[in-house]
Amino acid sequence: MTAEIKIQMLRKLILIRRFEETVKELYNRGSIVGAIHLYIGQEAVAVGVCQALRDEDYVFSTHRGHGHAIAKTLDVKHIMAELMGKDTGMSRGHGGSMHLFEPERGLMGGNGIVGGGIPLALGGAFAAQYRRTDQVSVTFFSDGAANQGTFGESLNLAALFELPVLFVCENNQYAATTPVKLSTAKLDIAGRAESYGLPSEQVDGNDVLAVSQAADQAVRHIREQGGPSFLECVTYRIEPHCGILPDDREPGERESWYERDPILILRKKLEVEKSITPEQLKDIEADVAAQLQAAVAFAEDSPWPESTAAHNRTWLV
Q: How many domains does the chain have?
């Protein structure tokens, strides 16, 4: 992997982080309403996986989907507009935080049902198989969703029909407010996929280079040999489950994970390799800040959707 690609991934990590920090600020002052589920701490999973994908590959997201949407499309303007409920948003302001769609770029949206995107991704994979393309369908989900009934059903069907789907478990240590050790009997979630015959791997979900390498190998295997694959990315959700729930954790727990910050890990590697300078880092931060400032201005200046638009289905086509 070239230094240029690594720097591009660092830029994406920073873009997602700063986007989420901006969203948190806007939410706290009332500019964004409804539930928000921030992706802070998990950025390496979305960036690493989407680095291996093409525009025509499908991504089925979750309720915590801002990072997936940005990594797949880099379209922060229309994502921000959607979060603010504006007509220029990805879903014309009617979907909000959990329903970010851009089918033209393979972003098939999120939903508010835990694990709801897992069986939907099988539909995308079946469509690719039926049309005999080499597209890959990716579903992101959490450790909590791995305990949902459709998880096992989907693994079985994907293996049975040899569907080109990549299952990506973002094991962020929490299902809402419940620690994974209190919700999951066997913590090796990737091992469950192995029992269905899927090639499976557990990786450091805070190391974007490790995620990217594993995802690239999995996607290549799917394109060339067919059938599903499984990645478990062990990461950590820094923020509470959503903007309206309290979140009590053990003293020092968050602080111990700060040392495993995805941005910090990649930045240190680039510095050791002498692939990036302090000036370049400052330029990246400045460019990202300007991009987000423009996105917020775009969203604030955008019109509200017409009241009749919710009854007019033609805009969904």
A: 1
Tens digits of residue pLDDT in 219-232? 999 999 999 999 99
Does a structural domain hold residue 203?
yes
What pLDDT, in 10s, does the model give residues 123-173?
Answer: 999 999 999 999 999 999 999 999 999 999 999 999 999 999 999 999 999
Lookup: tokens for 184: 């999951």
- Token reading at 193: 């996929």
Dihedral (CA of 12, 14, 20, 25) sign: negative
CATH classification at residue 19: 3.40.50.970
